[in-house]
Amino acid sequence: MGTSRLYPTEFASLPKPPAGYKPVYITHYGRHGSRYLVNPAQYSIVHSVLERAAADSMLTPEGQRIWQIYSAVYPLLDKREGELTPLGVIQHRGIARRMVGRYPSLFRGHARIEANSTNLERTMLSMFYFTRELLSLRPSLDIHADASRSYMGVINQHTLENPRATEYDIRWKKGDGLWRPAFDAYVADIIDPEPFCGRLFADYGYLQGVCDPLSFERHFFDVAVNLPSCGFPSILDAFNYDELLLLGRLDNCSFYIGKSRFPGGDKRGCYLSEAVLGDIIDRVAPDIESGVRVRLRFGHDGCMMALLAMLKVEGWDAELEDFTRAWEFWDVSQIPMASNLQFVFFRGRGGDLIFLPLLNEEPLALPLESIGGAFYSWNGFVSYCEPILREAREALLVTPVPVVLPY
Questions:
Q1: CA 23/CA 344 separation, integer angstroms
Q2: How far apart are CA 269 and CA 309, in angstroms?
Q3: What superfamily in CATH does domain 2-37+82-178+242-396 come from?
Q4: What is the 3-state secondary structure (H, E, C) of the chain?
Q5: CB 223, CB 298: distance < 8 Å
Q6: Would you put residue 294 in left (φ > 0), alpha (ψ -120 to 50) or beta?
Q7: C-beta separation of 88 from 118 below 8 A
Q8: Domain boundaries, the chain
Q9: Which residues neighbour 123 within 8 Å (Cβ) at sequence distance 6 or greater?
Q10: Which residues 6+ apart lie within 8 Å of 74 measured at CB?
Q11: Radius of gyration of the chain measured on its C-alpha atoms
Q12: Model pTM?
């Protein structure tokens, strides 16, 4: 299900810090919770093709089963594109509740919480329900929440609000990027829509006269992986296992092209995340000194992937010339709905800071020496990041040269 995977509901106990270390601060970047599809045309295209085939008696028994399920839920999807679903609310309330339960000392009295969101409804509502849950548990908290464009270039680095992003970067991110022809050729090479469509439609030639079967299969897949986020019955069983593997592979490859250390994109998709990494690092000391106990950021899946690539986390650090092999290393299902990266800080008796990095509330291994297998020196991490940030910032000063991606 890739980035449409639902957020986990079961969590192991977290490792305890070394003796003498107490929690002092959490810095966080989180993706919005489960949402409806961003492109409403995907819902309507699948509906219109199935509806027409049903009217023309061109659905197989399997197609009729799918049509019965989808036609019942379709009216509930209309005009909700990109919105947070009720499940998305539950996910963020749960993350907030567990954060308080694990580190109660950070939420005592009038502890100050800073929260920022991108200015999309689903991220703002994710922030709203997260902070609302905090207040329901600790009513005296001092929470400051904002969704200003002034902070947009930090938490959504792949926008023109980021002063280092160019029009070329924005075009590369979108569907008309110069990589699209090569990617589309790859899709056509590995996806044969006839077996899948043949299970739903009585005559493949009929379907070809109604729509492009390859586009229909891909739209159907996007709808199918999204329905569980909306709380509706799954129709993923319309695919066989091999079809799901190939369709999932495409998401890994397209995100790799746009958000990674992909040499064909001059690594810019990754490098732009220097904005949020720099912000995380720069705010730690002043936040702790001024009494901010938790800093929350609510953004998007691609921004999290780019940050993990920036940090050279295992798998995310791939620098493959051949984007078609990205699925061998990248696993975008690690960034499910409501995914989040938390750095939990602890101070020792001598004043030194260590932190526990968590991805989706599980310990995240970083490519530097750990303390006790899960904790890391904050000073060591900052030293590790300095050349990474310098490399990215210098590279982003170079005007990108438009290149059509080969395949």
A1: 7
A2: 9
A3: Phosphoglycerate mutase-like (3.40.50.1240)
A4: CHHHCCCCCCCCCCCCCCCCCEEEEEEEEEECCCECCCCHHHHHHHHHHHHHHHHCCCECHHHHHHHHHHHHHHHHCCCCCCCECHHHHHHHHHHHHHHHHHCHHHHCCCCEEEEEECCCHHHHHHHHHHHHHHHHHCCCCEEEEECCHHHHHHHCCCCCCCCCCCHHHHHHHCCCCCCHHHHHHHHHHHCCHHHHHHHHECCHHHHHHHCCHHHHHHHHHHHHHHHHHHCCCCCHHHCCHHHHHHHHHHHHHHHHHHHCCCHHHCCHHHHCCHHHHHHHHHHHHHHHHHCEEEEEEEECHHHHHHHHHHCCCCCCCCCCCCHHHHHHCCCHHHCCCCCEEEEEEEECCCCCEEEEEEECCEECCCCCCCECCCEEEHHHHHHHHHHHHHHHHHHHCCCCCCCCCCC
A5: no
A6: beta
A7: no
A8: 2-37+82-178+242-396
A9: 32, 117, 147, 298, 299, 300
A10: 43, 47
A11: 23
A12: 0.96
Write the single-letter amino acid at 17: P
**Structure-token pair, residue 11:** 């969590």
Q: Which two tokens stand for residue 384?
A: 């590790």
- Nearest CA to 243 out of 183, 197, 182 is that of 197
Q: pLDDT 10s per residue in the chain (407 long)?
A: 999 999 999 999 999 999 999 999 999 999 999 999 999 999 999 999 999 999 999 999 999 999 999 999 999 998 999 999 999 999 999 999 999 999 999 999 999 999 999 999 999 999 999 999 999 999 999 999 999 999 999 999 989 999 999 999 998 887 678 899 999 999 999 999 999 999 999 999 999 999 999 999 999 999 999 999 999 999 999 999 999 999 999 999 999 999 999 999 999 999 999 999 999 999 999 999 999 999 999 999 999 999 999 999 999 999 999 999 999 999 999 999 999 999 999 999 999 999 999 999 999 999 999 999 999 999 999 999 999 999 999 999 998 888 888 88
The total number of residues shown for the chain amounts to 407
